[in-house]
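May I ask for a protein sequence together with how it folds?
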Amino acid sequence: MVDLNDVINFCDHRLCLDEITDFDGAHNGLQIDNNGEVSKIGASVDAGLVPFRIAKEKKIDLLICHHGLYWTPPIPITGSNYEKIKLCIDGNLAVYGSHLPLDCHPEIGNNSILANELGLEQCGTFLPFQGVDIGLLTTSSYDRQELRERLNDLFPDGFRAMEYGMGKPEKIAILTGSGQSAVDKILQSGADTLITGELKQHHFNLAQELELNLYTCGHYATERFGVDALAKEVSGQFDLPYEFIETNCPL
């Protein structure tokens, strides 16, 4: 057994939680307590009832999530919300959540790991939020066709391409999850290409009008990386067994 506080302190420090302000109402850190001990850790993209049930079945007592339980506005603890809280308490399941800190971390963040998976070189950041850039800028030595093929190999189920920018992008922006806030900002950063999780229909028009390459790969799929990397580090640091809980979200 490992002391829960030791694990939480490790995660908080690794993610620099005190240096990053998240969206209003989003809570990063320990969200549900347990009896104070950890024997097995798990990770999931979402803090949902199904991942909680799977965690309980697998005897996980600390679940690290990217999309945690608490956002804004506050929600009543009724219906499925009650079931989630009750399951965690009855099953001695602690829940830890980290949103933006796990997107923009320079080593184990979703953006950074995705860049590494694609063989892109990090060259800067963009899209400031509360004093911290949450998007990543990269450079590439290959053309648009090879980039498309690499993305399709990595995300075979949800990949979509809108290609109206340069045939050989010199600078590529990455923002995992929702990329809606980044589309009209990437040109200011010197990029004309964005890799993200999801966009809206009107971004297709912007891609044509602004001559951009936009690649969507799935919100869930692009945000599996960071939470898995953090949980693996915790597993190694504290010699704890670890399992990733896959829910196969198609969005």
Notes: The radius of gyration is 19 Å. The first strand starts at residue 2 and ends at 3. DSSP finds nine helices and 13 strands in the chain.
